Amino acid sequence: MSQHSLPAPRKRFAPLMIVAGLVGALLLSLSMTGTLSAFTAAITNTTNTAASGSLILREVSGANNCISTDSTASCATINKYGGSTTLVPSDGTVNTSVTTVNFTNTGTATATSFTLKANACTQSGTGTATDFCTKLNVKIVSGSTTLFNGNATTLATQTATTPIALTIPTPNAATTVPVTFTVWLDASAGNTYQSLAASQPLVWTLST
């Protein structure tokens, strides 16, 4: 019997490899030549800015004024208690010292609070009484509202924990807040209260 050799199996992978190679070459060609395209739309905002505002508290009394341009200011030109050296015992209707000050916010920022705090009252002089500040009565009024009516010692104690809230002045000096101080020596002050003086710093705070 004659033997016939079997035909060799056909190789089917060659065409697939050729096709895959052509596709890869095509994609590589497109990625390198930039022939792929798309629609685009863009906006560039060239002006994007922000700035801080300012709080500037201005206090005016007569020809004197104080301005807090650096957040704090020490002002000795406006004496809220009047600076009288001739007070005598009074019921508060006569022999008083009256001073009015006006506050504005000349800055651009809107404040959310405006307060007054009194520091400790100290006495000096040659009189023998040791509690002169308790005999120095202080009445503080803004518009038709009485903010405080008592002695200087109580004013310091009370505002140490709860500062007095005032009407808030609006920015750009649009509104003015007046505050009037009336000071007198209590009617109960006897001879030992002669030749004495009191001093009491007051702190006004405008905040956002």
Description of the molecule:
The relative contact order is 0.20. Helices cover 17% and strands 32% of the residues. It is rod-shaped. Strands 1, 2, 3, 4, 7, 8 and 10 form a seven-stranded mixed beta sheet that branches. The chain has a three-stranded antiparallel beta sheet with strand order 9-5-12. The chain has 208 residues and is of the alpha+beta class.
SSE order and pairing:
Blueprint: H1 13-33, E1 57-61, E2 64-68, E3 89-90, E4 97-105, E5 113-118, E6 122-125, H2 132-135, E7 136-142, E8 145-151, H3 152-161, E9 164-165, E10 177-186, E11 196-199, E12 202-207
Parallel strand pairs: 3-10
Antiparallel strand pairs: 1-2, 1-4, 4-10, 5-9, 5-12, 6-11, 7-8, 7-10
Question: Keywords for this structure?
Answer:
3-stranded antiparallel beta sheet; 3 helices; 12 strands; alpha+beta; 208 residues; 17% helix; rod-shaped; 7-stranded mixed beta sheet
